[in-house]
Amino acid sequence: VQVADTAFLKEIVGELHEADLGDLIEALDADERAPLIELTGADFDFSALNEVDDTVREELLEELEPETVAEGVRELDSDDAVELLEGVDEEVQDEILEKLPLSERVALERSLDYPENSAGRRMQTEFISVPQDWTVGQAIDYMRETPDLPERFYEIYAVDQWQRWQGAISLDALLRARRPVSLADLVDEDRRRVSVVDDQEEVARMFGKYNLVAAPVVDIDNRLVGVITIDDVVDVIEEEADEDLKALGGVTSDEELSDNFWTIAKGRFAWLLVNLATAFIASSVLGLFEDQLQQMVALAVLAPIVASQGGNAATQTMTVAVRALATRQLNPNNALRIVIREGLVGLINGLAFAVITGIAAYAWFKTPGLGIVIGLAMICNLIAGALGGILIPMVLERVKADPAVASGTFVTTVTDVVGFFAFLGIATLWFGLK
Amino acid sequence: VQVADTAFLKEIVGELHEADLGDLIEALDADERAPLIELTGADFDFSALNEVDDTVREELLEELEPETVAEGVRELDSDDAVELLEGVDEEVQDEILEKLPLSERVALERSLDYPENSAGRRMQTEFISVPQDWTVGQAIDYMRETPDLPERFYEIYAVDQWQRWQGAISLDALLRARRPVSLADLVDEDRRRVSVVDDQEEVARMFGKYNLVAAPVVDIDNRLVGVITIDDVVDVIEEEADEDLKALGGVTSDEELSDNFWTIAKGRFAWLLVNLATAFIASSVLGLFEDQLQQMVALAVLAPIVASQGGNAATQTMTVAVRALATRQLNPNNALRIVIREGLVGLINGLAFAVITGIAAYAWFKTPGLGIVIGLAMICNLIAGALGGILIPMVLERVKADPAVASGTFVTTVTDVVGFFAFLGIATLWFGLK
């Protein structure tokens, strides 16, 4: 990236799709990114920056001249502009906003005022609204004559004189109809719409359920203020799935592939610390039975098997429960049925693994009774795991905690403690240890 | 659901959105579902059945009269019809197809011939194609005069006389342009398109990356054969995220919330059996050190802590790796950097937890040296976990196995075995046990 190559760079940058341009930015060394953008200037499509990792984008926006960013932001649809600016420090944000013309600045500031993850943040404020008493011909002529239409649109909206929402007209309906037809005949008044304060997850679920491509966003007075399109929703769906998956694996959702090792190590430390504490709790159960372990060392060798099998069964149940809660498939109507079903699954697999583990343990240590002891413990722990795996996420959801984040720790603590306690307790009674 | 209520039922069923109708079907008792559909007949929108769980749909389609299903299928877009029929037994499928008019049957059979999960299965064969030498006016008139247009569409396609793909024209471009403008001026020839044999995951990634709403599907001769729309892609994205999440939790992707306990217990058994085998492998390492455990029972109490902490750190790394592989963010270009980074993360957190665990273990058992032994073991196991967590998914991906399904078992086996071996091995050397 050198000044001499400017013309060549401009050509490349101008031709690339924003997504590929984003890939290019990420592939460059960190100190070449800002010069590339400064050199290519107006040819650089700033929406490409929404395609790169958050950390890369934020660093870059702080490095660039506020004038350059402001120029780039002016070319964007409002939703892309908000996405670009919402992550950067307030100071840098203000510097950039100051360079914008007043009307654009006010519009962006209003969007940024909506709560994080709300529909207001995700919507674009460019949309086409027309009076309901127009005809198809008038609407088409209006679109042909207005130079400053949104970049892409899939439907237009009918509003009254106070900009209140009346209904949606999809473009294909408009194209099928003849010019003299009144818009009132084409309008879909039942079209699902979004409130500006709705959470983006709710919006994504609605899009998924009703197969929407765009949805109008209205304020509390039912005035049309924006539109959310499917491309933003696809990002939300992917983010949410990603968050759940990472949370279940004990990784915070803001960890990114471009982070350095130090940031990542710090981010993962907290979760590991919590788990270390629970591991000590589980081991303290083993500590209660120190004498028995010394008398019969086979118990020390086999105890982790009981705990691990319970933990794995519980993780299966928990995974299904967390996902079903996130998609609202698991709800108060079917909760009891699912809890009973998981309990039965735990019982059946408990019985199956009681037999298998019992035979294996006896074959290994040749101690009469050891197979029965481990079998009984296995049944207890798989039932405990099944019930813990379903009930803990449900309780967390009820108390408004994120089941995906916190369930794992609680659930494996339950199976470790119950597993160790059941196995060593039953062994103590069976073999008369003390 | 009784014959007497038919008129009332028809009204409800006719008014509901397909997604809500699907919810209604799922909420009904299994023996009331078929009668509801038979009674309401033509008022029942069969696309509702694509909104219910696979098992519910398949049972229902086998129960219904083939004539009823054939009538319903005729009303659907081809992609919905394929989705409805692809899960049912071949026999039932043939019975239903036989009741369809020849042309529709042939079209459906052709779609069902494409490989499962291919673009050919997901596409709809209803689309609008026009000659490139038409004007905007001709295209609009064509749409106004053709009664049998697709239900919804977002763009039309220009083709040559052999139906070969020439380019796409979005509806908004069409509405902005004046009637005499030639379509050739509006056509986007670079529009990304899909081959009929492409995998649906690839298609979904393309939609996500390039923010598409629809994509044309072409055959090997570049002839336009269908179109894939974003609503189908959203389903694919959700399915894929769901599969990865369930796979990491040890649950097969075909498990559904409506399954009974017996089906579920059987489905989860295999994974638990594999994990039991690995738990025995890990415990056999403990078995090697039976004498040492007996001499120093604190080792038996603490060993699970080393194994569990390694397992959790490895799961963090593995979760990130599996997700990054699935989204193609982790690729040969950055693989080495990420492996080194994860190794460093393992080292840093290994050192941190060596200190914490060492102090805690010494405080608990007051045995001099025990803290150093468990600390050293912790460092070994967190590094092993980090490297296992990143390398195992990468190797599985390379050998074309699904990293999400198989990684977990291998990774925790590594951390259990390394954890037990490092801790007891170091303890044996340090304390001179035998």
How would you explain this protein's 3D organization?
The model of chain A has no long low-confidence stretch (mean pLDDT 89). In chain A, helix 6 crosses helix 8. In chain A, the strands form two sheets. Chain A has a three-stranded mixed β-sheet. Chain A has helices at residues 6-15, 18-27, 30-40, 54-63, 66-74, 78-86, 90-98, 102-113, 119-122, 136-145, 171-176, 183-186, 200-210, 230-248, 261-288, 290-295, 297-326, 335-365, 370-398, 403-431; strands spanning 129-131, 155-159, 165-170, 194-195, 214-218, 224-229. By secondary structure, chain A is mainly alpha-helical. The first copy, chain A, has three domains: 3-113, MgtE N-terminal fold, CATH 1.25.60.10; 129-231, CBS-domain, CATH 3.10.580.10; 261-431, Tetracycline Repressor, domain 2, CATH 1.10.357.20. Chain A starts with 5 loop residues before the first helix and ends with a helix. Chain A has 20 helices and six strands. Chain A is 66% helix and 6% strand. The longest helix of chain A has 31 residues, at 335-365. Chains A and B meet through helix 10, helix 11, helix 13, helix 14 and helix 15 of A and helix 10, helix 11, helix 13, helix 14 and helix 15 of B.
